[in-house]
Structure formats: C-alpha cells, structure tokens
Write a structure and sequence with these properties.
There is one protein chain. This protein has about 140 residues and is of the alpha+beta class. The chain has helices at about 5-15, 20-30, 40-50, 55-65, 110-120, and strands at about 70-75, 80-85, 95, 105, 130-135. The strands form two sheets. Strands 4-3-5 form a three-stranded mixed sheet, with no helix packed on it. A two-stranded antiparallel ribbon has the order 1-2. A hairpin with a 7-residue loop joins strand 1 (about 70-75) and strand 2. Helix 3 (about 40-50) crosses helix 4.
C-alpha cells in the first residue's frame, strides 16, 4: 500500500472518519491533478468518471485534508477557494489573475531570502508562509 494511502487512512481515523472508496477517490483526484480546482470542480470530475460520491463527502474530505496539512486551500480573492495537494510538492508561491482566475506558480530565491532576513531582523522564527500576488494576466490585460 502506498505511503500516501496509509497517511490518508491514518488522518481519516484520527478525525473519526472511515476510510472509504469515495474518500480515497477524492484524494486521488486531488493528488493526480496539477491544476488548482475548487470543490465543485473536483466533485463534478468524480461524478463524470462514474464515482458515486456526495458533494458533502467531497467537502468533508477536503476539510480534513486541509486540516491535516495534506492539501493547501488557496483564497483566490473572488469566487470559491481552490485546492492543491501538498504531498511531495516543492515550495512555491502563486500569482492570481483577478479577471480570469488563472493561477501561475513561481519560486523566487530573492523573495525567499528577503523573508528570511525580515524574520531574522524581527527575531521571528518562520514555520510557513503563503505568498500570493494578485493582478491581471497578459491574456486579460
């Protein structure tokens, strides 16, 4: 059994939820897609693929995955939050278009170093951060 499936089982058990095929399908749908999607997109894809799952199960499962640091919830400013998996995913930040909702991932060492310097200056120990830039992409300009 895969390491991720074992972690999913452990997290669900800890939260008092049973490991089911539907919850595993929700997890698999998130982890196998590189797009940032909202809950309804995930739900509709599962249904389109013939997986009988309720919207409530999708919401509840994603909430548990976010709570247990397996999935990241992105507040994209307008519209519903979007989600991405965090398993074995390298650190990155996001640029979000406020017109079309397009999300671009990026990594910039200068930004990372500046954050570390600011934290050190203020004697603050960083444990995590979320860096999101909101603007208008080239296609919407």
């Amino acid at each position: 059994m895969s390491k991720n499936k074992e972690k999913l089982k452990m997290v669900l058990h800890k939260e008092g939820l049973r490991f089911t095929n539907q919850r595993e399908a929700v997890w698999n749908e998130i982890v196998t897609c590189d797009e940032h999607r909202n809950v309804d997109d995930i739900y509709m894809t599962l249904r389109k693929n013939g997986i009988l799952v309720s919207r409530a199960t999708v919401y509840r499962t994603i909430d548990v995955l976010v709570k247990n640091n397996m999935v990241r919830k992105l507040d994209v400013g307008v519209g519903p939050s979007k989600f991405e998996h965090k398993m074995n995913a390298p650190h990155h930040d996001h640029m979000i278009c406020i017109q079309c909702g397009r999300i671009e991932e990026f990594v910039d060492d200068q930004i990372e170093n500046l954050q570390d310097s600011v934290a050190k200056e203020y004697e603050f120990k960083l444990v995590r951060h979320i860096h999101q830039l909101f603007g208008i992409c080239k296609d919407c300009q």
